[in-house]
Amino acid sequence: MLSIKDLSFRYGKLDVLNGISFDVFKDETVCILGPSGSGKTTLLRLITGLESIQNGTIELSDISIEEKNLYKQHLGVVFQEPRLLPWRTSIENVLLPFELNEKKISDEQKEKAIEALKLVKLDDFKDSYPRELSGGMQHRLALARALVTDPDLLLLDEPLTGLDVNTKEELQDEILYLKKETNKTVLWVTHDPQEAIYVADRIIILSERPTVIKEIVPVEYGYPRSRLSSDSISLEQHIRTIFNEKEDN
Ligand SMILES: Nc1ncnc2c1ncn2[C@@H]1O[C@H](COP(=O)(O)OP(=O)(O)O)[C@@H](O)[C@H]1O
Ligand SMILES: [Mg+2]
Description:
Blueprint: E1 2-11, E2 14-24, E3 29-33, H1 40-48, E4 55-60, E5 63-64, H2 68-72, E6 75-78, H3 90-94, H4 96-99, H5 107-119, H6 135-147, E7 153-157, H7 165-181, E8 185-190, H8 193-199, E9 202-206, E10 213-218, H9 230-244
Parallel strand pairs: 3-8, 3-9, 6-7, 7-8
Antiparallel strand pairs: 1-2, 1-4, 4-5, 9-10
Helix pairs in contact: 5-6, 8-9
The protein binds adenosine-5'-diphosphate and magnesium ion (MG).
The site of adenosine-5'-diphosphate (ADP) has 11 residues, from strand 2 and helix 1.
């Protein structure tokens, strides 16, 4: 589905990514786990085309990122902050992705927006403004907006950071449910090993800058997972060991 080959990127003199290659296969949930400043957001910005490629290639469903418009139709993105427009109601926020292409919203698009709101259980709040929603609801609204165009790949950049533990764990379950319900492939950036172990099929562990892939760890047990099983805990120990290892040089 997503194929990244030999991706390197620098901001001026700052070497950020240093030869990153990996694939995400259809229906997978892959987590990118890396320390702060390792270039996780930069990587997602490259995949969404917000940053231009300096070195390497990115393909999505066999479409090169060079074919911008075609490529973008296959992507949905959720950032760390929900990035909602405060002067727009829930449904107006969810309709935004359609407006970037066309001026006029069709009835069919409105129905899709209502469906997306139903999926995240916010249809009763379709005429509410973001300030009238709780933190968790705002994040769910951002998810509905990413899903409304029915993309193949959902990109999540630390989408649950800043939420309290209960809301965060509820939303982890909610995202797994949405993924299943809508047949999405998910690439999920996080700095939280426990989150990665709870949601991912595979975990890609990044080094510090200049960033390489340290290890790709498969998580082999099925869903729903227990956060406190001995499997989860020993995997967490393994991942923390890799995560904290300093590179030799
Ligand atoms: N627009 C930018 N211009 C210059 N440096 C940047 C820019 N955006 C990010 N950086 C730097 O690139 C590195 C990687 O940033 P980022 O991708 O945000 O890391 P992460 O998301 O893993 O925390 C950081 O050192 C950051 O300071
Ligand atoms: Mg980031």
